[in-house]
Amino acid sequence: MSSERPFPALSSLPGFDPRMVPVAAVDSHLPAIAPAALDAQALRSRFEAQPVWVPEYLEEPRFSDRMPTPASVLIAIVARDEPMVLLTQRTAHLSSHSGQIAFPGGKQDPTDPDLTSTALREAQEEIGLDAAYVQVLGALPIYRTGSQFVVTPVVALLRDGFDLERNAFEVDDIFEVPLAYLMNPAHHRHHVVDIHGVRREWLSMPYQQGKTERFIWGATAGMLRNFYRFLSA
User: Would 12 be classed as within a structural domain?
Assistant: First the structure.
């Protein structure tokens, strides 16, 4: 483990609100992924014959001295007429990424055969998702969070007809965002701030759902951006 002093977690800073940090740039100049490339068959084909591509976001500034911990999340795409991405809002009292928008997922248990199994187990535990409705397509490159979780994003199609039941201790809300919205860089905003002499940067992808703003940022936004790079390669 590195002997460098960890940076403080942004969410631990008194009064910190990522929504209040100015937007430095918006990626409107980048092309959106065409709707035809987002349907179920197109996504299957992309994972079956993967292109050469380079992920953009792989690691956050470290703010924990804990040992790196393998984990995985489920990027579940609901295969409807308009593909949707299933997301959760974590409860405010959790010790890690409290209150933030996230994919279902968590750390690998010793009994998990692999990290895909971890993502499926965690999705069942957190939101009651039955794995029988899930078709795993593949995985994106690992993403290391500042809290030292080494996360494998598992991408899957979710067949309609499923029922969900949230774990009230971990999950405050479950909702969906159109995949096309998230795969349009006109909605990808860059934030930059100097904290304790350290430059911190992150992405946000705010989505207005009725009167509720779903402020997607940090690790979740970084993994979605890598998914965009994968689909646009």
Answer: no
Question: Rounded to the nearest 10 degrees, how much is the dihedral formed by the CA atoms of 217, 220, 223, 229?
Answer: -50
Q: How far apart are CA 141 and CA 229, in angstroms?
A: 11
| pTM of the full structure | 0.91
Has residue 159 been placed in a domain? yes
CATH of the domain at 85: 3.90.79.10
Q: Is residue 19 situated within a structural domain?
A: no
74 Ramachandran zone, left/alpha/beta (phi>0; psi -120 to 50): beta
- Phi, psi angles (nearest 5°) of residue 96: -125, 125
User: How many degrees, rounded to 5, is the angle at CA 86 between CA 154 and CA 120?
Assistant: 40
Closest CA to 4 of 49, 73, 54, 61: 61
pLDDT at 158: 97
The DSSP element (H or E) to which 224 belongs, if any, is helix 218-232
For the chain, list residues with pLDDT below 50: 1-3, 93-98
For 113-148, letters b (16+ CB in 10 Å) and e give eebbbbbbbbbbebbbbeeebbebbbbbbbbbbbbb
The per-residue pLDDT for 95 is 46
